[in-house]
Amino acid sequence: MNLNTIKEILHPSSVDEISQWRDGYAWLAGGTWLFSEPQVATDTLIDLDQLNWRALETSPTGLDIAATCRIAELYRYAGSDEWPAMPLVRECCDAFLASFKIWNASTVGGNICMSLPAGPMISLTVALEATYTMYPRNAPPLEIRAVDFVTGNHTNILQPGELLRSIRLPAAALSKRFAFRHASLTHLGRSAALVIGTQTKDADDFLLTITAATPRPIQIRFEHMPSAAELRRAIDEGIPAEDYFDDVHGSAAYKRHLAYYFTEQIRAELAAPGARA
Ligand SMILES: Cc1cc2nc3c(=O)[nH]c(=O)nc-3n(C[C@H](O)[C@H](O)[C@H](O)COP(=O)(O)OP(=O)(O)OC[C@H]3O[C@@H](n4cnc5c(N)ncnc54)[C@H](O)[C@@H]3O)c2cc1C
Fold first, then answer.
1. Atom of ligand 1 nearest to the CA of 68
2. By the 8 A CB rule, do 111 and 71 touch?
3. Between the CA of residue 87 and those of 92, 106, 173, 179, what are the distances in Å?
4. What is the pLDDT of residues 236-251, one digit of tens each?
5. Quick check: CB of 184 below 6 Å from ligand 1?
6. Is the CB of 117 within 6 Å of ligand 1?
Protein backbone atom coordinates (compact mmCIF):
# COMPACT_ATOMS: atom_id res chain seq x y z
CA MET A 1 0.00 0.00 0.00
CA ASN A 2 1.05 3.63 -0.40
CA LEU A 3 2.30 5.15 2.83
CA ASN A 4 1.10 8.73 2.57
CA THR A 5 2.84 9.87 5.78
CA ILE A 6 6.32 9.21 4.34
CA LYS A 7 8.11 12.39 3.31
CA GLU A 8 11.61 11.01 2.75
CA ILE A 9 13.47 7.75 2.10
CA LEU A 10 17.18 7.74 3.01
CA HIS A 11 19.61 5.31 1.35
CA PRO A 12 22.78 5.33 3.51
CA SER A 13 25.82 3.38 2.29
CA SER A 14 27.12 3.23 5.86
CA VAL A 15 25.28 3.08 9.18
CA ASP A 16 27.45 6.00 10.42
CA GLU A 17 25.58 8.29 8.02
CA ILE A 18 22.57 8.05 10.37
CA SER A 19 24.25 9.97 13.16
CA GLN A 20 21.01 11.21 14.77
CA TRP A 21 17.79 9.35 15.50
CA ARG A 22 14.40 10.97 16.06
CA ASP A 23 10.72 9.98 16.35
CA GLY A 24 9.30 9.30 12.88
CA TYR A 25 12.35 7.36 11.63
CA ALA A 26 12.11 3.65 10.80
CA TRP A 27 14.59 1.18 9.33
CA LEU A 28 13.31 -0.28 6.06
CA ALA A 29 14.34 -3.87 5.26
CA GLY A 30 12.13 -5.87 2.85
CA GLY A 31 9.17 -3.61 3.61
CA THR A 32 6.68 -6.50 3.57
CA TRP A 33 5.22 -5.48 6.90
CA LEU A 34 5.99 -1.75 6.73
CA PHE A 35 4.03 -1.42 3.48
CA SER A 36 1.22 -3.74 4.58
CA GLU A 37 -0.48 -1.28 6.94
CA PRO A 38 -0.56 2.49 7.64
CA GLN A 39 2.51 3.76 9.51
CA VAL A 40 1.03 6.95 10.91
CA ALA A 41 3.92 7.56 13.31
CA THR A 42 6.58 7.28 10.58
CA ASP A 43 7.66 10.03 8.18
CA THR A 44 11.14 8.81 7.13
CA LEU A 45 12.27 5.36 6.03
CA ILE A 46 15.95 4.43 6.17
CA ASP A 47 16.58 1.79 3.55
CA LEU A 48 19.12 -0.87 4.61
CA ASP A 49 19.63 -2.17 1.08
CA GLN A 50 22.52 0.12 0.10
CA LEU A 51 24.59 -1.05 3.06
CA ASN A 52 25.39 -4.04 0.85
CA TRP A 53 26.04 -6.43 3.69
CA ARG A 54 27.15 -9.85 2.49
CA ALA A 55 24.09 -12.07 2.89
CA LEU A 56 25.68 -15.35 3.97
CA GLU A 57 29.15 -16.33 5.03
CA THR A 58 30.30 -19.78 6.16
CA SER A 59 33.40 -20.63 8.17
CA PRO A 60 34.42 -23.69 10.17
CA THR A 61 32.94 -21.99 13.23
CA GLY A 62 29.48 -21.41 11.82
CA LEU A 63 27.19 -19.52 9.48
CA ASP A 64 26.84 -15.74 9.55
CA ILE A 65 23.60 -14.34 8.17
CA ALA A 66 23.27 -10.63 7.50
CA ALA A 67 20.05 -9.11 8.86
CA THR A 68 19.35 -8.00 5.27
CA CYS A 69 19.59 -11.55 3.85
CA ARG A 70 16.33 -12.34 2.00
CA ILE A 71 14.32 -15.41 2.99
CA ALA A 72 14.61 -16.63 -0.63
CA GLU A 73 18.45 -16.33 -0.52
CA LEU A 74 18.62 -18.26 2.73
CA TYR A 75 16.35 -20.95 1.29
CA ARG A 76 18.56 -21.37 -1.79
CA TYR A 77 21.68 -21.61 0.28
CA ALA A 78 22.84 -25.23 0.39
CA GLY A 79 25.22 -24.97 3.34
CA SER A 80 27.83 -27.45 4.38
CA ASP A 81 27.27 -31.21 4.26
CA GLU A 82 29.03 -31.39 7.60
CA TRP A 83 26.07 -29.75 9.29
CA PRO A 84 23.21 -32.15 9.96
CA ALA A 85 20.91 -29.35 11.21
CA MET A 86 21.06 -27.38 7.95
CA PRO A 87 17.74 -28.81 6.62
CA LEU A 88 16.07 -27.00 9.51
CA VAL A 89 16.62 -23.77 7.57
CA ARG A 90 14.25 -24.86 4.80
CA GLU A 91 11.74 -26.30 7.26
CA CYS A 92 11.52 -22.89 8.92
CA CYS A 93 11.35 -20.94 5.64
CA ASP A 94 8.49 -23.22 4.60
CA ALA A 95 6.67 -22.35 7.83
CA PHE A 96 6.25 -18.77 6.61
CA LEU A 97 2.74 -17.66 5.61
CA ALA A 98 3.95 -16.04 2.42
CA SER A 99 3.64 -15.79 -1.33
CA PHE A 100 6.79 -15.75 -3.49
CA LYS A 101 6.58 -11.93 -3.45
CA ILE A 102 7.00 -11.88 0.33
CA TRP A 103 9.77 -14.52 0.23
CA ASN A 104 11.78 -12.54 -2.31
CA ALA A 105 11.55 -9.25 -0.41
CA SER A 106 11.34 -10.19 3.25
CA THR A 107 14.59 -10.36 5.22
CA VAL A 108 15.78 -12.57 8.04
CA GLY A 109 16.42 -9.51 10.23
CA GLY A 110 13.05 -7.97 9.39
CA ASN A 111 11.31 -11.15 10.47
CA ILE A 112 13.22 -11.26 13.74
CA CYS A 113 12.66 -7.55 14.47
CA MET A 114 8.91 -7.87 13.77
CA SER A 115 8.99 -10.29 16.71
CA LEU A 116 5.67 -11.95 15.93
CA PRO A 117 5.03 -15.27 17.72
CA ALA A 118 4.86 -16.93 14.27
CA GLY A 119 8.20 -15.52 13.10
CA PRO A 120 9.93 -18.60 11.67
CA MET A 121 13.38 -16.96 11.60
CA ILE A 122 13.03 -16.49 15.35
CA SER A 123 12.21 -20.19 15.76
CA LEU A 124 15.19 -21.19 13.59
CA THR A 125 17.77 -18.97 15.21
CA VAL A 126 16.67 -19.62 18.79
CA ALA A 127 16.64 -23.40 18.24
CA LEU A 128 20.12 -23.22 16.72
CA GLU A 129 21.43 -21.22 19.68
CA ALA A 130 22.28 -18.17 17.58
CA THR A 131 23.82 -14.95 18.78
CA TYR A 132 22.66 -11.67 17.30
CA THR A 133 24.95 -8.71 16.71
CA MET A 134 23.18 -5.42 17.37
CA TYR A 135 24.27 -1.86 16.69
CA PRO A 136 23.15 0.29 19.63
CA ARG A 137 23.09 4.08 19.14
CA ASN A 138 26.47 5.68 19.90
CA ALA A 139 27.98 2.56 21.46
CA PRO A 140 30.04 -0.40 20.24
CA PRO A 141 28.29 -3.44 18.70
CA LEU A 142 26.64 -5.75 21.17
CA GLU A 143 26.13 -9.51 21.05
CA ILE A 144 23.11 -11.13 22.63
CA ARG A 145 21.63 -14.63 22.67
CA ALA A 146 18.74 -15.08 20.24
CA VAL A 147 16.57 -16.53 23.00
CA ASP A 148 16.80 -13.22 24.91
CA PHE A 149 15.78 -10.95 22.02
CA VAL A 150 11.99 -11.30 21.70
CA THR A 151 10.13 -10.25 24.84
CA GLY A 152 6.48 -10.70 23.75
CA ASN A 153 4.03 -10.43 20.85
CA HIS A 154 5.64 -7.79 18.56
CA THR A 155 8.04 -6.60 21.25
CA ASN A 156 11.78 -7.05 21.66
CA ILE A 157 14.78 -5.53 23.41
CA LEU A 158 15.66 -3.06 20.62
CA GLN A 159 15.62 0.58 21.70
CA PRO A 160 14.64 3.31 19.19
CA GLY A 161 17.22 3.51 16.41
CA GLU A 162 19.02 0.30 17.34
CA LEU A 163 19.79 -2.00 14.45
CA LEU A 164 20.05 -5.76 14.14
CA ARG A 165 23.21 -6.32 12.08
CA SER A 166 23.67 -10.09 11.82
CA ILE A 167 22.90 -13.53 13.12
CA ARG A 168 25.52 -16.18 13.87
CA LEU A 169 24.57 -19.85 13.87
CA PRO A 170 27.41 -21.69 15.66
CA ALA A 171 28.85 -24.85 14.08
CA ALA A 172 28.26 -26.71 17.35
CA ALA A 173 24.49 -26.20 17.06
CA LEU A 174 24.47 -26.82 13.30
CA SER A 175 26.18 -30.16 13.99
CA LYS A 176 23.30 -31.40 16.13
CA ARG A 177 20.51 -33.80 15.19
CA PHE A 178 17.07 -32.23 15.13
CA ALA A 179 13.36 -32.97 15.02
CA PHE A 180 10.80 -30.44 13.79
CA ARG A 181 7.02 -30.14 14.09
CA HIS A 182 4.80 -27.39 12.77
CA ALA A 183 1.04 -26.77 12.44
CA SER A 184 -1.20 -24.01 11.22
CA LEU A 185 -4.98 -23.94 11.02
CA THR A 186 -4.97 -23.26 7.28
CA HIS A 187 -2.71 -24.30 4.42
CA LEU A 188 0.13 -21.72 4.30
CA GLY A 189 -1.49 -20.08 7.33
CA ARG A 190 0.39 -18.38 10.12
CA SER A 191 1.92 -20.94 12.51
CA ALA A 192 -0.10 -22.06 15.53
CA ALA A 193 2.86 -24.01 16.89
CA LEU A 194 6.41 -24.54 15.70
CA VAL A 195 8.47 -26.81 17.92
CA ILE A 196 12.08 -27.89 17.44
CA GLY A 197 14.22 -30.31 19.41
CA THR A 198 17.98 -30.70 18.99
CA GLN A 199 20.50 -33.13 20.40
CA THR A 200 24.31 -33.29 20.30
CA LYS A 201 25.60 -36.13 18.13
CA ASP A 202 26.27 -39.31 20.13
CA ALA A 203 25.00 -37.66 23.31
CA ASP A 204 21.84 -37.79 25.39
CA ASP A 205 21.11 -34.08 25.88
CA PHE A 206 17.93 -32.39 24.63
CA LEU A 207 17.24 -28.76 23.78
CA LEU A 208 13.57 -27.98 23.25
CA THR A 209 12.34 -24.76 21.63
CA ILE A 210 8.62 -23.96 21.60
CA THR A 211 7.51 -21.06 19.38
CA ALA A 212 4.33 -19.64 17.80
CA ALA A 213 2.18 -21.25 20.52
CA THR A 214 3.61 -18.72 22.97
CA PRO A 215 4.13 -14.95 22.57
CA ARG A 216 7.90 -15.38 22.80
CA PRO A 217 10.16 -18.41 22.32
CA ILE A 218 10.41 -20.76 25.26
CA GLN A 219 13.53 -22.88 25.48
CA ILE A 220 14.04 -25.75 27.90
CA ARG A 221 17.41 -27.48 28.21
CA PHE A 222 17.81 -31.03 29.52
CA GLU A 223 21.19 -32.57 30.30
CA HIS A 224 19.69 -36.02 29.63
CA MET A 225 16.71 -37.04 27.54
CA PRO A 226 13.68 -36.77 29.85
CA SER A 227 10.90 -39.32 30.18
CA ALA A 228 7.49 -38.34 28.81
CA ALA A 229 6.32 -37.44 32.34
CA GLU A 230 9.44 -35.38 33.08
CA LEU A 231 9.03 -33.53 29.80
CA ARG A 232 5.41 -32.68 30.51
CA ARG A 233 6.28 -31.48 33.99
CA ALA A 234 9.04 -29.24 32.62
CA ILE A 235 6.64 -27.73 30.07
CA ASP A 236 4.04 -27.07 32.78
CA GLU A 237 6.68 -25.33 34.87
CA GLY A 238 8.05 -23.36 31.91
CA ILE A 239 4.70 -22.31 30.41
CA PRO A 240 1.68 -21.66 32.68
CA ALA A 241 -1.64 -22.36 30.88
CA GLU A 242 -2.46 -18.64 30.67
CA ASP A 243 0.84 -17.91 28.88
CA TYR A 244 -0.15 -19.57 25.58
CA PHE A 245 -0.86 -17.16 22.75
CA ASP A 246 -4.52 -16.71 21.88
CA ASP A 247 -5.33 -15.24 18.45
CA VAL A 248 -7.22 -15.92 15.22
CA HIS A 249 -4.60 -18.51 14.28
CA GLY A 250 -5.62 -20.73 17.20
CA SER A 251 -6.95 -20.58 20.74
CA ALA A 252 -4.57 -20.82 23.68
CA ALA A 253 -6.01 -24.24 24.59
CA TYR A 254 -5.42 -25.55 21.06
CA LYS A 255 -1.85 -24.28 21.03
CA ARG A 256 -1.20 -25.79 24.44
CA HIS A 257 -2.47 -29.12 23.16
CA LEU A 258 -0.15 -28.86 20.13
CA ALA A 259 2.80 -28.01 22.36
CA TYR A 260 2.31 -31.19 24.44
CA TYR A 261 1.61 -33.31 21.36
CA PHE A 262 4.58 -32.12 19.32
CA THR A 263 7.10 -32.07 22.15
CA GLU A 264 6.32 -35.69 22.99
CA GLN A 265 6.69 -36.68 19.33
CA ILE A 266 10.02 -34.87 19.15
CA ARG A 267 11.21 -36.47 22.39
CA ALA A 268 10.35 -39.93 21.07
CA GLU A 269 11.99 -39.23 17.70
CA LEU A 270 15.27 -38.06 19.16
CA ALA A 271 15.30 -40.73 21.86
CA ALA A 272 15.10 -43.48 19.23
CA PRO A 273 18.51 -44.76 18.16
CA GLY A 274 19.34 -43.80 14.59
CA ALA A 275 16.66 -41.11 14.50
CA ARG A 276 16.86 -38.94 11.42
CA ALA A 277 19.25 -36.01 11.48
C1 LIG B 1 0.78 -11.62 3.55
C2 LIG B 1 1.74 -11.50 4.71
C3 LIG B 1 2.06 -12.65 5.41
C4 LIG B 1 2.95 -12.59 6.51
N5 LIG B 1 3.23 -13.74 7.19
C6 LIG B 1 4.04 -13.70 8.27
C7 LIG B 1 4.35 -14.89 9.02
O8 LIG B 1 3.89 -15.98 8.73
N9 LIG B 1 5.16 -14.77 10.07
C10 LIG B 1 5.71 -13.57 10.43
O11 LIG B 1 6.49 -13.51 11.38
N12 LIG B 1 5.46 -12.45 9.74
C13 LIG B 1 4.63 -12.47 8.69
N14 LIG B 1 4.35 -11.32 8.01
C15 LIG B 1 4.88 -10.02 8.51
C16 LIG B 1 6.21 -9.60 7.77
O17 LIG B 1 6.01 -9.57 6.40
C18 LIG B 1 7.36 -10.55 8.09
O19 LIG B 1 7.58 -10.59 9.49
C20 LIG B 1 8.66 -10.19 7.38
O21 LIG B 1 9.61 -11.19 7.59
C22 LIG B 1 9.24 -8.83 7.79
O23 LIG B 1 10.49 -8.69 7.12
P24 LIG B 1 10.82 -7.42 6.23
O25 LIG B 1 12.24 -7.57 5.81
O26 LIG B 1 9.84 -7.26 5.11
O27 LIG B 1 10.65 -6.27 7.30
P28 LIG B 1 10.12 -4.75 7.16
O29 LIG B 1 8.66 -4.74 6.82
O30 LIG B 1 11.04 -3.95 6.30
O31 LIG B 1 10.36 -4.31 8.68
C32 LIG B 1 9.63 -4.88 9.74
C33 LIG B 1 9.97 -4.13 11.04
O34 LIG B 1 11.29 -4.46 11.48
C35 LIG B 1 12.12 -3.29 11.52
N36 LIG B 1 13.43 -3.75 11.02
C37 LIG B 1 13.67 -4.41 9.87
N38 LIG B 1 14.96 -4.78 9.77
C39 LIG B 1 15.56 -4.31 10.91
C40 LIG B 1 16.90 -4.38 11.41
N41 LIG B 1 17.89 -5.02 10.74
N42 LIG B 1 17.17 -3.81 12.61
C43 LIG B 1 16.18 -3.19 13.31
N44 LIG B 1 14.90 -3.10 12.90
C45 LIG B 1 14.59 -3.65 11.70
C46 LIG B 1 11.43 -2.26 10.65
O47 LIG B 1 11.74 -0.94 11.03
C48 LIG B 1 9.96 -2.62 10.89
O49 LIG B 1 9.54 -2.09 12.13
C50 LIG B 1 3.49 -11.34 6.89
C51 LIG B 1 3.17 -10.19 6.16
C52 LIG B 1 2.30 -10.26 5.09
C53 LIG B 1 1.97 -8.99 4.33
1. 41
2. yes
3. 9, 20, 13, 10
4. 999 999 999 999 999 9
5. no
6. no
